[in-house]
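Moderator note: this is an archived Q&A kept for reference. The question asked for a predicted structure of one protein chain; the sequence and the answer are reproduced below.
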Amino acid sequence: NPGFDPHNVLAADVDLPDQKYTNAKQDQFARELMPKLAALRGAESVAGVFPLPMTGAEMQTSVQIEGLPVAESDEANAAIFSITPGYFRTLKIALRQGRDFTAQDDLNTTPVVIVNESLARQFFPGENPIGKRIRPGISVDEKPSRMREIIGVVTDVKFKDLTSEWMPTTYVPQSQIPIGRLTLIVRAAGDPSSLARPVAEMVRSIDPDLPAYNVRTVEEYLDGTIAIPRFNTMLLGIFAGLALVLTAIGLYGVISYSVAQRTHEIGIRIALGAQPSEMMRLVIEQGLRLALFGVGLGLIAAFAFTHFLSNLLFGVTATDPVSFAAVVVTLLAVVLLACYIPARRAMRVDPMVALRYE
């Protein structure tokens, strides 16, 4: 769970160079562009953000809590995002408390900030963070950073990759902290790729010199973060599958050969009056006893070493009971076949022939 819904969302980067775009002009650009994007056919909601989660870009800053002075070296760190109104709605990030940013949150109004649940738990345990003030170490035009009032709390989001831990995060309005770069995100009612060209055209309609680049879906960004773990897991799965097949073949060969070697014994027992069902049960019990001993040793080793695979697993644990049960059932089924087939064949042999079997 990355903390947001990446499905049906298109993303496109736009750079706003300092030489042309002052802070006020960056704000004006976003305010002019967002309604045009929202009016596109098939667009459900739109927003701007920097950096977009799962793109490899990240920003972190120190955080001071009002009333809790600490040495600069002891200040906590938090991720920081510069966003436009509608960002949480577009990525379906739940707002737990307070309110979202609005068009009124600009450079001329009270500095505000929205935090995630991890930051609220860390800095305001057992308290309502709404109305508290914090100072993220980020400012405009190299001016000293300012205290910002917390107006909302949202759920946690993994912004780097799926293996990263939840970390304290702050969100500031793009109109108050313009970064000079904006990733446009558009949630589509259908295929988001169909909006790629219209989004680029809308950007050029405001400024013909601004290209929209890195146009791709948020799902593609997400897939990129797990490409290496997915490839490693695929290779591991192939080798594990081959190992299971070789184990099954070897197990079947050893058990069936062992049972076939007992053809002489089986013939004598049947000649002395043993029932075929009794012989079948005897052979299967002995085969299962040996197999269960081996499976027990394998389970002990697996529980001891599978924790090394934890960083390759999503959605299951290294000791996933379903996976372990599937392997055990597969191997025991192989053992049953390895016992049943040669035993059945041996019991069909005429006792006199079995007595002469070499």
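Archived answer notes: The first strand starts at residue 9 and ends at 15.
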